[in-house]
Amino acid sequence: MPIEDDSTFGNLQNYKLYLRPNSHSHYGATYGKKSSLNKHQQNVQNLLKIMSRNEAMTTWDFAKISITNDISKLREREKIYRRLLVGRKDKGKHSDGIVNLGLVVKDGKSFKTGISDKYRLSLYGVLYCIDVMNLDDKEIDRIAKKYSKVLPKVFGKWEYIKSKIGNKVYGIKLLANGLLADNPQIQVSPGIPFYELMSYVHIKYQRNFESISEEKLAEQMSYWFFINLLYQPLQKNNTVNIGIKSLDPIFETDIELKKWFLVFFKESTKYFQSRYNVLKNSKIG
User: Fold this and answer.
1) Beta-carbon count within 10 A of 245 CB
2) Which residue has the higher pLDDT, 185 or 180?
3) Which SS3 state, helix, strand or coil, does residue 116 take?
4) pLDDT in tens, 17-69
5) What Å distances lie between residue 240 and 107, 163, 193, CA to CA?
6) Neighbour-count burial of 240, counting CB atoms closer than 10 A to its CB (0-12 exposed, 13-18 middle, 19+ buried)
7) pTM for the model
């Protein structure tokens, strides 16, 4: 789904190295422990949690969810939410909002009473909520439903995938925690191209470190999600399926999803073959 503003975030490596740590610094790394969060951080996390449960809305709509039956408090809360989202400029001072950091994006306009911007979580806003708010599985299911159009290959097929592999879908928590699984020291059962495919999914988008469209980011996250499902730790009696066979339960009844992933698989194979040929044809001395 296209967004109105140019993205202010980069690829998954950028999320791991910059966006996630900055989000923790600005808005807190834990949820529910008021003693560890200042008032601003509490307000931000409360707003983000409301956004995680809903599709794109105006600041007035968000305020109505938070405050009921008190118009004066409702107006004040709407002002607070607007400042949190877009920042503020007053008394010669400027503060960035959640939109500037990249956790929230503008997504359309409301014409109910005048013209108002609508906001929703960005994909990184979704990951931040999963990362710090101790969401249970049902809450993650709800996010998947509300944001199915933003991450169509994963959230758009969430219940289908879940019916095939069960609780393994919640491996997306690892991505939210910044664990990109690109460490060559990770050991998996023989015959599973886990490291090769995970490496290539980062190589493929390495030029997007500073800036990436939300559509491409959704694609990178989707590749990560399915590759992560391949992970099988080393076992003494290796009985796991080799290659990408473990994805067959998902692909056997979703041909379009299978075609999409196989294009990526062939692309990564071609890349590593070309790298091998470079080494093979090199001469020393």
Assistant:
1) 13
2) 180
3) strand
4) 999 999 999 999 987 676 789 999 999 999 999 999 999 999 999 999 988 77
5) 44, 20, 13
6) middle
7) 0.90
Structure tokens at 169: 């879908």
Only one residue has tokens 């990564």, namely 268
Task: Kindly state the DSSP code that residue 57 receives in the 8-state scheme.
Answer: B
- Identity (one letter) of the amino acid at 196? E
Domain edges within the chain: 12-126, 152-277
Provide the residue type at 214 as one letter.
E
Cα angle value 163/226/199 (rounded, 5°): 165
> Considering only CA atoms, which of 159, 128, 125 is closest in space to residue 142?
159
Cβ neighbours of residue 21 closer than 8 Å, sequence gap 6 or more: none
Q: For residue 39, how many C-alpha atoms fall within 13 Å in the half-sphere facing its CB?
A: 1
Whats the size of the chain, residue-wise? Answer: 285
Sign of CA dihedral 102, 61, 130, 2: negative
CATH 1.10.10 is the classification of domain 12-126: yes
Confidence bin at 267 (pLDDT 50/70/90): very high
Q: Which of 155, 96, 124 is nearest to 13 (CA)?
A: 124
Q: State the Cα–Cα distance between residues 50 and 262, nearest whole angstrom.
A: 37
DSSP states along 227-282: HHTT--B--SS--SPPTTGGGHHHHTT-HHHHHHHHHHHHHHHHHHHHHHHHHHT-
Cα separations in angstroms, 49 against 8, 64, 84, 98, 147? 21, 14, 14, 13, 13
Q: What are phi and psi of 232, to 5 degrees?
A: -135, 120
Structure tokens that stand for 153 in this block:
């290959």
